[in-house]
Amino acid sequence: MMAYIAIVEDEKNICKSLRLALEAEGYVVDDFQDPLIALPKLICVPPNLLILNGYMPGMHGIAFFQKFREYSSAPVMFISANAEEIQDTLESMGMTAEAYVAKPFSQRLIVGYAKRLLGGAGRRAG
């Protein structure tokens, strides 16, 4: 079974480029630009990996992460211009995500993290 990745990011171009890059590696990908729509869906059907923007209109990434963690222990990768600040804030709350990536970033970096966090799952054998 292929790994399911969810992207929660308010910037449409980032969603689209990450989706294409991850789908090219064989992952099943959903992207959401509105965190308030994404959260209930991802609680019902948790992804194998969540890629989450730290700052979005409607709901802060840290608040989203806290709520998501109540229902899922799936790895979370934060993408943000302020990745270090998010990491520091979470650690001060006794929480941590599996990866923090500063914007701007390369698609290759995100795909590499996804492969590492998912144990290389994605590509179909054969």
Task: Report on the architecture of this protein.
- α2 packs parallel to α3.
- Helix content is 42%, strand content 19%.
- With 126 residues, the chain is α/β, with parallel strands linked by helices.
- The relative contact order is 0.19.
**Could you give the order of the helices and strands?**
EHEHEHEHEH
Distance between the termini: 13 Å
Share of helical residues: 40-55%
Silhouette:
globular
In total, the number of strands is: 5
Helix and strand composition category: alpha/beta
Describe the secondary-structure layout.
Elements: E1 4-8, H1 12-24, E2 28-32, H2 35-44, E3 49-53, H3 61-69, E4 76-80, H4 83-92, E5 99-102, H5 107-117
Parallel strand pairs: 1-2, 1-3, 3-4, 4-5
Brief overview, please?
This protein has 126 residues and is of the alpha/beta class.
Q: Tags for this entry?
A:
about 130 residues; about 40% helix; alpha/beta; 5 strands; globular
